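Ticket reopened. Same input as before:
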Amino acid sequence: MSSLSFWRTYPLLAKNQYRASLRQMKSQQGWFMRIVIALMMVYSAFILLTLGFFFDRFSAELWPGTNPVDVVNRSLLAAFVSLFFIRFLLQKTPRMKIVPYLHLPIGRWTMISFFQSTSLLSIHNFYPLLFFIPFWMRYIVVEGSLTGHSMWIGAVIMLILTSHFANLLLRSILQRRATLFYLLMTLFIATTFVDETAGIGLQQRASEYLFSHILSGDLLSLGLLFMLTAFVMTASTILLFQSINKSEDSARNTRARVRSFEVPSEWGLHGQLVRIELLLMWRNRRPRHYLFVSLLFSTMYLIFMMGSPMAFSGAAFGAILGLFASGGFALNYGQLMFGWDSTHYPAFLSRNVSFQAIVRAKLTVLQLSCLVLFVASLPLFIWLRPNLVPVHFAFLFYNAGVTTVLIMELASRNRQRVDIGKSGGFFNYEGFSAKHWLWFIPTALPPLLFLIVMDGSPRLGLIILAALGFTSLLLTQGWTRYFARGLMARKHRMLEGFQESAR
Amino acid sequence: MKRYGEKVALDIPAWDLQAGEVLGLVGRNGAGKTTFLRIMLDLLRPDRGHVKLDGRAHSSDMSWRARTGSFLDRSFLIEYLTIPEYLEFVGTTFGLSRREIAHNLESFESFLPISRVDRSRLIRDLSTGNAKKVGILAALFVNPEFVVLDEPFANLDPPSQIQLKEQLSSMASNNGTTMIISSHDLAHVTEVCGRITLLEAGKIQQDLETSEQTLSDLQSFFSKHHTASAT
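Engineering reply: fixed in the latest deploy. New output:
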């Protein structure tokens, strides 16, 4: 069978994508959230436009006596790296959109070029222009030659494209070779950290050199940037091609070697359920990424935060560190504690497994995660900020006792399905709703506010927090019964929700 | 009774099953068979009415779960486990020790040769047929008093279908296991089940003891119905 021509394929795919995005928009958010998002977008657009048109006033405040163009040229690389991280959190790759078309007589490259090009229609590629175009009109066009300022705006567009395709590229690497991805990210963060703390400012100098040369009409500098853009674009396209070919090889034929572990028979059903929860974490990419990222936070990231020359201090800083250093995994993974089971929830409910047993196993895992992260990060606290060790101790009890319970309260009301086998990696929000983001407020804010209020007698504040956590830990059995009752009452609604969101 | 919006998915005023009975549930697609089974297993709440097991409402008294083996679809499997891990979990829920689990599995060796199975292979990497065998095996190897299976013969190769029929018949005659088996395979279901309930648009159309005549009666019912729908 011959492939459909390029001219017939593009309109066909475009029509389908238009329908899909229209339906996604309708189904994803309620009216309230849509209004909130729209207001936020208008507000951000207004800020960016204002900043672009009146950047001199802004730069005069922060960098008095410096030409606004120099300020922007110096910050361009850093700004795009930051924008890249936002993209990485929010923007998805087109891979999943391609999969349903693989069996159709459409050429692979035609399909890839279509989805790679349409991925450019992302809002992330447009909102930086709300700053750059006014800035260019107001400050760049008046400087230098026509060639120079045309090249400058061209370079900015190339940076946007580089950042766009770098996101697709890195996501592909994360999907296929997670270790390499984490190594690259760690290397990048470490280099940036050293560059900043040692006062080398290599990134700023490179940025200033590149963009001031481009502005003066230097074709070599533009050529360098063009090569970078072309490289990232080609590499992401090739990896996308490889990944869809790989996805076509039936998953059933992939026989990944799996490691298992036994639990003593004496641990009975509780041991089995804890084992199942640990295997869930280990054998599914997204929960595994939560685990790695939490470990990374409790080790590498803590070094950056605690060793930062900016010398963060104060009760709020301590509370944030304490909360996330030992409670990071519970806060991230725990929110979807029942969502992870949504595809196989009947496997528990149709068997002689009580809700109490399920909750007890889940609480055990969450509480243990706090202990593991506490132990992993304790040496760093001792090394870098010994004064924060009591905070770390207090939060171990608070997180294990209170945070886990608050997270379970949210998780046990979850009715959103998470297809764990297909749910991708860490930066995937399937199963999350606005409620999950809002739940951070009652979970993270009270200890933070409490420690700020108790700033006068911090030791007493920490003792109270730890005592609260300890008391709650002693009440684990009571919490287990409480959650089990709630789950029992909601079991049919949860099951229906898990099934409905699968359709 | 169970409704989905305006549509009545199931409407059964009264129905009972005696201990030791093997019931075949037949009907067209969308007749309400799976809804019926899900309600039986307390995975779906009826809008009206209830299910009683041994005189106790099964949604409040969970003791029936310790005596019931069931498999409706892949959601009954924990797909990121290997076959031995999954069967160990199921066995533990029935209070079986590792030795008892291994012993019970021996009698199913020809249906799914656990001793020769790749122990490091995850259930999600199995073919549809093999995953189904794992689900059926998990429902049966624990020697339950009550078995609920949805379409157990579909997707199985012919030797496995024959072995399954023999296994079900042996459990019914030797252990007195009560069963509800939903199937589109009229030949298999009439061979294994002593009683057939025919569902049509959520209602019980026929409820009869299986005889030599049942298969041809069912075939003529469905062929008439097919002709009626076609015209």
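The mean pLDDT of chain A is 84. Residues 265-501 of chain A form one domain. Please confirm and we'll close it.
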